[in-house]
Amino acid sequence: MMQPIRGLATAAVIALTCSVAITAERHRPMLAESNLELPIRRGVEAWIGIPDDWTVQSVIKHCQDGNRLIYVQVQNEQIATEIREAALATNLLGKRIFVSRRGPKRIGISDGLCLDCRVAGSIANLVPESEVLRVLIPGASGHLGDRVVTARKLVGTDVWTHPYHAPDNNPCSRDRVARRALETRYIAYPHFSPMPQISVAGYGRLYRAMGHIAHKANQVPALNTLVGVDIASGCILWRRSLPEGFMIHRNTWVAVPEGIWVGDDTACRLLDRDTGMELRRIEVPEHVGGPVWKWMGLVHQTLYALVGDREIAPSTQRSDNDALGHWGWGMWEGHDYSDPRRNFAFGDVVCAFDLRSGKPKWSHREESPIDGRAICLMGDRLFYFCPGRHLVCLGKADGSLKWSNSDADLLAAIDKDAPAQSFLNGYSTQFYLACDDERLYFAGPQRPNFIAVSQFDGRMLWQQPDGVRHVVAHPQGLFVVTDIRNKIKSGRIDTLHFRPSLCS
């Protein structure tokens, strides 16, 4: 019979990677066809030494009961071996229990990964408090013997609530904590994702939506799946199936403190941050339009949306190719944008909903389709583009028309979609309208020209014949990404006169 472990100096766990955090256990029938499931974990705990009144079996039971990842650090080789053997017998070793033999001065885990760190009382005076605080998630509490210590919360972090950071589609973070040099803290599952994929993050969670195309067999388990991830450790907290036949690569994902708002072909749902369960839903009233959600932007307690009719429903593409390596490119189903009435994310009604009541505040209908890749919010205005017809600005408060520009030169400069879907260009489903405080920018894989337009009257300020793939509006200037054939080189440019100024 195993005796309690008493008075053992302990320490360290192997450096934490989130690949350890996920293991192959069956949780849902949808994944039964594969041995590469996406298991659910409740976070990471570190045990530096074993409590005096605990046995090895107590450690095993604690791990099983709480569905946790546990890292045990002990100095005694015999105890380390006993824990490893018990974990191996229960199929937990290397999956949910990791054991390291190491002294107490240094905890062998990366910074800020643990929901809890417990140091046995018998060695509490040997483990520096700074080490316990180092491995804790900011704001989390640990135990140094009988004493509770709490890690300082970070100040100045940013949230990435929309697919391109915010409703302005400008992927420029305002984070003041993340600075070079950076280190890899964890590598999270799934290691291989189907296409497309889109993510939003904030308030302690990362939400990853994975689409309908698997190029290799290792991507199949994640087809049409949304996961909620603990942003500190990378552990998957929950997962949820997404409707097949709905293109996910669009701006209908918004992270909020309660969870994530997800718009699809029937409704917009608020999913709980901890469980993924539906908390609320908003449906578009028939007299407004819909029912498909094409684009969303959340500002304060108002949810702005582009809605419209049913779209092309792309088929799920599975693969039995066991190889590793790159993915292919092609003009996949619906990616040619050849049918304005059924294109991905094309709609005809822009509207605003009161988030508290779920009721519409205003709506504005267009006769021509609005491209959901070309709509954004900034300040008190909402901007959108109807291909071949006009660029429009609405007042955010009431949906009133501020200006509309159907100038032939502007429409010609924006032009029709150029070929995309290649490694040099990128994806045709990517957005191509972004803004800063003064200008709108047309740039993307499918845009033949790079254009700046005044926010205030819709007047075209300048255009460049070579389009750019990505644009980031930064206080220091515009930063652009191009392909290797472009005369415009990736780097920083002057926003007023389009002068390259820090190219690379």
List descriptors.
504 residues, Lipocalin, 33% strand, Rossmann fold, mainly beta, 8% helix, 6-stranded mixed β-sheet
User: Given the helix and strand composition, which structural class is it?
Assistant: mainly beta
Radius of gyration over alpha carbons? 26 Å
The amount of helix comes to under 10%
Count of separate DSSP helical elements: 5
Largest sheet: 6 strands, mixed
Assign an overall shape.
elongated
Walk across the major sheet and give the strand order. 3-2-1-4-5-6
Mean pLDDT: 86
Compute the separation of the termini in Å.
67 Å
Give the CATH architecture of the domain at 186-372.
Beta Barrel
Describe this structure in a few short sentences.
8% of the residues lie in helices and 33% in strands.
What topology does this entry show?
Elements: H1 18-21, E1 44-48, H2 56-66, E2 69-74, H3 77-89, E3 97-101, E4 116-119, H4 129-135, E5 141-144, E6 147-150, E7 195-202, E8 205-213, E9 225-230, E10 236-241, E11 253-256, E12 259-263, E13 268-272, E14 278-282, E15 292-299, E16 302-308, E17 346-354, E18 360-371, E19 375-378, E20 381-386, E21 390-395, E22 401-405, H5 408-414, E23 433-435, E24 439-442, E25 450-454, E26 460-464, E27 470-474, E28 477-481, E29 491-493, E30 500-503
